[in-house]
Amino acid sequence: MNGGPIVSIRDLSFAYSESGPEVLRDLSLDIGAGTICALLGPNGSGKTTLLNLILGWLRPLAGRIELDGRAGPALTRREMSRVLGFVPQEEPSGFELSVLEYVLLGRAPYLGFLETPGAEDRRAADAALEAAGIRKLRGRLLPTLSAGEKQLASLARVLAQDPLIFLLDEPMSHLDLANTQRICWTIESLRDKGKTVVFTTHDPNIASASADTVVLLLKGKVVAAGPVRTTLNAANIKTTYGVDAEIIEGNGRPVILTRLRKR
Amino acid sequence: MDGEDKKEKRPGRRLWAIAAAVLVCLVLSALIGRYPKPFLTPLSALTDNEMARSLIVHLRLPRILMAFLLGAVLSAAGAVFQMIFRNPLVDSGFLGVSQGAAFGAALGFVYLGGTALGVQASAAVFAFLGLAASYFIARRIRWGDWVFRLVLAGISIAALYSAGTGVLKYLADPHKQLPDITFWMLGGLWSVTWPDLWQVLPVAALGLAIMLLMRWRLNLLSMRDETAFSLGLAPGRERLVLLAAAVAATAVLVSKAGQVTWVGLIVPHIARRLVGSDAQRMLPASMLIGGIFVLICDDLARAALSGEIPLGILTSFFGTAVFIALLSARKLRLKS
Questions:
Q1: Which of B7, B226, B280 has its CB closest to that of A52?
Q2: Crossing angle of helices B263-275/B61-84, nearest 10°?
Q3: d(C-alpha A214, C-alpha A225), whole Å
């Protein structure tokens, strides 16, 4: 883990309309540079909204977000796109771009307004496909991919973008065990290169196994935030999800066991 | 790897083949007509027959170029609309533009004396007003995402214009104005001369140039807004630039040619089948194929019968036939 926070959030509030309910309330949070941070919380707790606010796509109602000590709006859109990369939960695939053509879109931050991708961008896209383990899919058309393959293609796109901070919304929701492992390992090697990864997940065990720090969100507020080991305890799980859990240790990390049968 | 490279180069080669087909069609079209004899003008007439030569230079050439330009603009605009709205079933008629042009033309026939200039200017102005009205209404809708709001606003403006056109038809003099309106709506290029071409060329060329230059960004704009934003785009602003370019080019051509339908809808689909969906190649391919399609339809319009067949009828007829064929072959496309 590296030094100071790269994302610093202070007293953040947000609502989707002026009269609507606040989705996030007085939220303060630091995310350390070169760490993997998992955002956990039940449905509707504000995880995706928080990612969109960090991205700058949504504007806060109150409070501020600083990236690397600077307020987000101080950077131009183009500069921002080299700092922050984003993968939404789902991408439309109505038009039949090939996986390679789709991954090449990640090179937009490095191209002039009217420029089209060149040889160097193709190399970067190929390297990204390799890293995501989907080289063999490069010629396939997006609508023909399975949900899991689409997630890997989206990961490859943001790898080709090569930002400082990766914002991934549910990157493992459709993946099988092998591909979950692949994404976790890819995220880890990004961290080892000094990148910061923030991802949302519904699964506390995935967060525990892959992240350095976790943030537990409930109704737009932070329940607890900190290192995985100390934060993922039975009390915090109970507060966040309203579920009794037993915590055991596996591979030096907490494993959250919940009773999924009534008896 | 070699096989992969070969496969990737195929669409590029197809684009060149389409460009070559354009040249062949342009030359052949100059030789197709009803004078000195029906269908093909013999090459000897170019040297022996002063009248035939003059006819080709002064009447056929401007009309051929206008037909090609019309097809290129309608198809490029259709491709832009489909990608921006992430919907393969829209074209530039979508934001009240065609209906605006029709209303403007009807207004020109009924209240502006029915002169060519009055009708064309009025059609172009109301086409653009259609886009502007759709845009401002979309901004006032407070729910749904941007694309959905524009679609909703566009549908209502189109319906409003259609109602207005109905009123104008009802008020029109049934012996002169009503047939004029009806014939304009069927579309055609029979009156096109060189000055007509020069009038539309600047706006049409500018619109086409903007669409062509921004073609790779169209791929980005067909993604989710958040994704486009995260890749450094200002999606709202860039869409507006592309829409304005597409509508301006369409409006000036529709003002000359009347309602020529189905071109903008089907041609981008044909282009996708041939060169793939990446707008880098799909957009130029759409322009060229659209040009060929309208050119061939217009050749038939002026040469198939001794009288003129309205162009809009032919594009609709062949357009729908191709469209149905494409729809039923949809599964095939996914395998390519």
A1: B226
A2: 80
A3: 6
Please provide residue A84's backbone torsions phi and psi, each rounded to the nearest 5 degrees. -115, 130
Helix (H) or strand (E) holding A214: strand A213-218
**Coil, strand, or helix at residue A223?**
strand
Residue among B83, B87, B227 minimizing CB distance to A91: B227
- Nearest Cα of chain A lies from the Cα of B83 at a distance, in angstroms, of 8
Cβ contacts of B276 on chain A, cutoff 8 Å: 96-98, 101
pLDDT of residue B84 exceeding 80, the answer is yes
CATH class held by domain B36-335: mainly alpha
CA pair distance B68, B293, nearest whole angstrom: 8
Is A9's pLDDT higher than 80?
Answer: yes
State which residue of chain B sits closest to A54, comparing Cα positions: B230
Tell me the domain boundaries of chain B: 36-335
- Residue A158's φ and ψ, nearest 5 degrees, are -75, -25
Evaluate whether ipTM surpasses 0.90. yes
A105 CB neighbours in chain B (<8 A) are 219-220, 223, 231
Quickly list DSSP for B150-172.
HHHHHHHHHHHHHHHHHHHHHHS
Q: How far is A26 from chain B (nearest CA, A)?
A: 24
What is the DSSP secondary structure assignment for residue B85, as one 8-state letter? T
Q: For A128-175, how does the pLDDT look when each residue is reduced to its tens digit (9 = 90+)?
A: 999 999 999 999 999 899 888 999 999 999 999 999 999 999 999 888
**Partner-chain contact A86 B7, CB within 8 Å:** no
Residues of A in contact with B223 (CB under 8 A): 91-92, 105
- Give the tens place of pLDDT for each residue, B264-276: 999 999 999 889 9
Q: Would you say residue B334 has pLDDT above 80?
A: no
CB contact at 8 A, B204 and B249: yes
The C-alpha atoms of residue A252 and residue A85 are separated, in whole angstroms, by 31
Predicted local confidence at residue B17, as pLDDT: 93
